[in-house]
Known about the structure:
This protein has seven helices and no strands. By secondary structure, the protein is an all-alpha fold. The radius of gyration is 22 Å and the shape is elongated.
Amino acid sequence: MTPHPNTSPERLSFSKRLMDTMGSHRGLPASPTILAREFNAHFSGKPITVHAARKWLVSESIPTQDKLRSLAGWLGVSVEWLRFGGVARVLPNRDAANDVASPQDSLVRLYLTLPAREREIARDFVGMLVSKSRQRNENRATSGLVSITHR
């Protein structure tokens, strides 16, 4: 993509790091449509538009801190490197084969790929499972007390 003609060096550098990382780390073209789709799949806040993604890619703007954190996490780089450059590019303590730090992270990443409505259903389902589990644990604890008192 061609940078915006009146861009600052800071925004230009950010856009270059973003495009390079999309290509080298994720194997994705620097497309606003792809960036918006993939970012929104990993961001729990209000989705970005294709226009906002285009502005990041053509050096018109830099994302807010919450979006930078999500973007860096998805791309597997440090927030500081993505925003400012420097040497600390790749996040430490990551499993390069799966790009996850733990099985829970993998589950969260999968969850974040769901559309908003399906995420809501998943939250409700997990809430129901937690409630049932607590109820079973309370029943076990209560039945243990009853058997002790009736001896």
